[in-house]
Amino acid sequence: MIISIQLLKKRINELTFEEMAFVHLSTNNSLIFVKDYQLRSTLSFIYQNICHALVNETIKQLMPYLSLCAVLDQLGICYDRKDKIKPRYSNGIKRVLVNFSELAEDD
């Protein structure tokens, strides 16, 4: 398991795929420090937006769904499984559903 403190000694170009995924998937609103940069997950911004939207009456119904679509799209574009054939879709939402759920490619 990766923890933020492990990344302090590495430069950004020395991070492994797993470490970059750790940074990307973090919902922590604080910065993650590496030797030469300060990083923050884009998903943490979306998470923060969802939390803010839930207390605002005018957008609390729609914003979480829009944010969820943004998260699914981003995950579908960035990640593929090693144990499955790559989906033929370029749409990130469809790719993530085929890759990481029980949805069949032709559904």
Give the topology.
Layout: H1 17-25, E1 32-33, E2 38-39, H2 42-53, H3 63-78, H4 92-100
Helix pairs in contact: 2-3, 3-4
Structure description:
- The structure is a single chain.
- It contains 4 helices and 2 strands; from the N terminus they run αββααα.
- It has 107 residues and is mainly alpha-helical.
- The protein has 2 domains: 1-40, no CATH class; 43-100, no CATH class.
- The protein has a two-stranded antiparallel sheet.
Beta-strand share of residues? under 5%
Major sheet attributes: 2 strands, antiparallel
Measure the end-to-end span.
Answer: 34 Å
- Poorly predicted runs: none
Which percent range fits the helix content?
40-55%
Query: What's the helix count?
Result: 4
Provide the residue-averaged pLDDT.
85
Order of helices and strands: HEEHHH
In brief:
This protein is mainly α.
Essential attributes:
107 residues, mainly alpha, 2 domains, two-stranded antiparallel ribbon, 4 helices
